[in-house]
Amino acid sequence: MTIWGSTRLIIKYQQSTVLKRREGVRVRDIVRQTTPRAFAAHCHSEAYMSNNKNNLQLVQRLQEFSIPLIAGVIVALVCANLNFSLYEGLVHKPFYELGSLFSEHAPLTDATDTAHSATVTHQTALVAHDQSEPATGSHGGGHESPWAHFLTMHFLVNDIFMVFFFGIAAKEITEACLPGGSLNPIRKAINPLFGTLGGVLGPAAVYLLLNAVMGRPEWSKGWGIPTATDIALAWLVARFLFGKGHAAVSFLLLLAVADDGIGLGIIAVAYPDPAHPTVWSNAIWIVPGMLAAFGLRMMKVQNWVTYIAAGGSLCWWGLYSAHLHPALALVFVVPFLPGPKRDMGLFVDDETPTHHHSPLEQFEHSIKLGVDFGLFFFAFANAGVPFSGITELTWIVLAALVVGKTIGIVSFSLLAQKFGFPLPEGMNNRHLAIAASVAGIGLTVSLFVSGQAFSDTATQGAAKMGALFSVCAPLLAVVLGKVVADQPGFALSLPWKTRRSTAN
Questions:
Q1: 0.85 exceeded by the pTM?
Q2: For residue range 277-315, what is the model confidence (pLDDT) as tens digits?
Q3: CB under 8 Å to 140, separation ≥6 — which residues?
Q4: Which domains does the chain have, with CATH numbers?
């Protein structure tokens, strides 16, 4: 062995010794039993494992801060403002036609042409899209081939991918209802559900009021747009402000899921598709889907895939064939998955070797990474709006989300307290005000409802822009947090402070 090779081996040996000492392993015993070549291979394996750990930490950070979702919004906005018709083609054309789509669009030359072209292509795309395809939210054809609709990004993201997104949300609510969970006993859920009712009625009232003052009569049917809350971003901001495991996080998560469920119900009831009216009799397929999941649980089946394939497929078909949005399909199935005896926490992976992961936990562990990164495509497919489309409707939607949500949730939650239904243990009215302001983030389902409420693409764009701007709601929450942080009985929990104190 050369001097350089020996030096490298010694360095590797020293690094491995440090690592193994931390783990309580006698490295010298390992070295005595191995040859230099074997020990070099062992050191290489240690370095490989260290790199994998670093990569895993990077992925966890991307998930923790919803970077894929935020990146998808940014990319969609850039693409839509550079060339709106190209963006529309990427989202709504079947995959096998994308090659011809790129060949039809020449690159833009300068900033002036870019802005002008974005406006012109936006107006052109409105006419072409309205003449050639149904509304964005409709289920059905619009392409020459009857199967082309099922091969578009819009369908695969909104009608397939979002099923698993809401499935994870249903899993969190299911565990919160277990012994030790924030919603057990069920009496604990009464106050958040009152808040949910206020989180729907408050924004709707503010929307209609502002529209009567500064809007147009045809915009009045968009009252359902600000009724929803973005689950992923709301949970992220709440955990940032309150810390992991805080009762306000559980309160907000239940409220967000219920809000989105009501939002999807609003789509079915208040915004029926004239070309595809709701066929309520087809929704009966949900019943055998639930019975299939219940039967599998009685048979003590431990494979979560079986529940999703059997029960989830039937529920999805029931919703889709009834012309209801199928994104809620797994909400009817996930509660039947065998779970732990006690709530293990919100969005937390238990890495204890002795812990047995139930099918309910395995379901989340298996798909959460794909869902978190798949939110990039959801944001890209739904958030592409030209800035030239901003109108008074944009500010009406934004105000209804940020102001209406806060007022509605706080008012109805206080009303529930008057009726004898207190806030979850560990949560006070100051936490309530901050959580209510966080609920003003209306991205996911608000984008869905915008596509259903208005058939005109320009009006859709203005409404969607208001939903996108609602990501500023956390700024209000942070301001409220700073105002009350120094008050008695309130502690603002910041993640990095917690980690520093733990390290010390």
A1: no
A2: 888 899 999 999 999 999 999 999 999 999 999 999 999
A3: 134, 149, 275, 276
A4: 9-64 (no CATH), 67-503 (1.20.1530.10)
